[in-house]
Task: inverse folding
């Protein structure tokens, strides 16, 4: 269902009153909501996303996770416009296969991040409306998180939240994982169990305050043993 | 280093045309539903000890701080440093292209391309993107500083500041920068300029990076959090 209003600010419905003649213009973009989060630890990485797919005031699906497995050591979380998320992940999968066939090895997380940056920039003048976060293990087995903007600017982080509730989650992560904005606090390294618990708590908070986040949480934990997934229910309202 | 004049800050959702309102080469027919990250304070100047470049580290996206620890000064090679401002994706990618072209030149011709040549190459490539570049390096003819803009402007000078915080930085630089500065004095002026700009400009802040380029190459000062500086100053004033 595509709203016929001009999409100056998708995700916000206009008021129901007559403002005079309005030019209706087709917008190729739509906003489907969703939040993704990634945390890098010493020898693990976590990529989590909610599973709600919405548009305007409607929910299309309660079971549409936004984490996509790329390799045995890398998971990508994509939120924003679902059409572009699907196409982008298909393109990344194809490029991964091409790399594997030409170079006889799997792409590393850093290489995938650099490649994604060029893929996104290739559409600089008609961007993919996708907020990407890649989580995985680097060549040394340490956790790595790479966060992107829609046109391909990226950098490596320790933790990052993206999507509709990112502005609410990022300060919380800064405080709990980065120990920022506090004085006289002991910096304790993050264990895997504590990180998973923190991610769950953080999403429960996001579901309370952001209408586009909710239904369920899918957590992917990447370690050298492989990728394990957990699903946690969230508010459905 | 791409620098975007303060006047185009409002055009967040408009096509990324050149700052002087020139018709863009590849115009955007689709209005973007999201803002790009930009907003910054960067500066560079020449002095007897080489070239000094400094920048803040805040990357903002409309009202949100997308990244409080971004790198706005990126080395292009051992003797050339570029500062970035404007859309970060544009800056990052053009910097990569520039590094590649300079490296190829070096391999083909056996010597490094001068800063003015690098500037020429960059301005020919830019077009349609938004931002400005400052390139600082010492070459065989001495240190060089070039300001390159996405509309193709290429200016040589001895002092530039680019970004939304540049007016504040200029006020410190104009009174403090002289040819005869020592390295410590120059670093202190550059730091102070970024600090004042970060304090007054909403889109600049967090930390400051300082790079010093000489004929031996570039050195980087440890990234410094400006919050500490602010509290030190408050303590000194006894307020």
Result:
């Amino acid at each position: 269902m595509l709203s016929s209003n001009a999409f100056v600010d998708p995700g916000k419905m206009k008021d129901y009153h007559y403002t005079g003649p309005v030019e209706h213009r087709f917008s190729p973009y739509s906003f489907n909501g969703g939040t993704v989060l990634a945390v890098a630890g010493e020898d693990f990485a976590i990529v989590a996303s909610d599973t709600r797919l919405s548009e305007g005031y409607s929910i299309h699906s309660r079971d549409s996770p936004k984490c996509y497995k790329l390799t045995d050591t890398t998971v990508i979380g994509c939120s924003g416009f679902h059409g572009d998320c699907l196409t982008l992940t298909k393109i990344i999968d194809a490029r991964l296969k091409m790399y594997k066939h030409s170079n006889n090895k799997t792409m590393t997380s850093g290489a995938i991040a650099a490649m994604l940056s060029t893929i996104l920039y290739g559409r600089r003048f008609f961007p993919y409306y996708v907020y990407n976060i890649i989580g995985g293990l680097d060549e040394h087995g340490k956790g790595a998180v790479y966060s992107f903007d829609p046109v391909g600017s990226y950098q490596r982080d320790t933790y990052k939240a993206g999507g509709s509730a990112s502005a609410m989650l990022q300060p919380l992560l800064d405080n709990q994982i980065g120990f920022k904005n506090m004085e006289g606090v002991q910096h304790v390294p993050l264990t895997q169990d504590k990180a998973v618990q923190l991610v769950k708590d953080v999403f429960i908070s996001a579901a309370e305050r952001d209408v586009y986040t909710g239904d369920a949480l899918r957590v992917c934990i990447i370690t050298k043993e492989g990728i394990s997934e957990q699903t946690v229910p969230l508010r459905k309202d | 280093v791409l620098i975007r004049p303060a006047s185009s800050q409002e055009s967040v959702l408009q096509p990324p045309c050149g700052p002087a309102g020139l018709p863009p080469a590849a115009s955007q027919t689709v209005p973007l539903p999201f803002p790009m990250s930009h907003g910054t304070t960067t500066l560079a100047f020449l002095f007897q000890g080489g070239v000094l470049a400094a920048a803040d580290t805040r990357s903002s996206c409309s009202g949100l701080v997308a990244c409080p620890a971004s790198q706005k000064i990126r080395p292009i090679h051992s003797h050339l440093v570029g500062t970035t401002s404007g859309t970060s994706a544009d800056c990052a990618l053009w910097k990569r292209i520039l590094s590649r072209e300079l490296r190829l030149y070096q391999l083909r011709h056996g010597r490094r391309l001068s800063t003015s040549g690098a500037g020429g190459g960059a301005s020919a490539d830019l077009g349609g993107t938004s931002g400005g570049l400052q390139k600082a390096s010492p070459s065989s003819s001495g240190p060089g500083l070039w300001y390159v803009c996405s509309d193709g402007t290429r200016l040589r000078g001895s002092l530039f500041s680019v970004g939304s915080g540049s007016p504040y930085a200029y006020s410190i630089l104009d009174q403090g920068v002289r040819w005869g500065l020592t390295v410590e004095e120059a670093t202190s002026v550059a730091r102070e300029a970024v600090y004042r700009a970060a304090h007054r400009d909403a889109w600049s802040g967090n930390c400051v990076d300082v790079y010093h380029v000489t004929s031996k190459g570039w050195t980087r000062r440890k990234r410094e959090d400006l919050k500490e500086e602010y509290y030190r100053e408050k303590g000194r004033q006894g307020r």
Q: What stands out?
A: The radius of gyration of chain A is 18 Å. The longest strand of chain A covers residues 130-137.
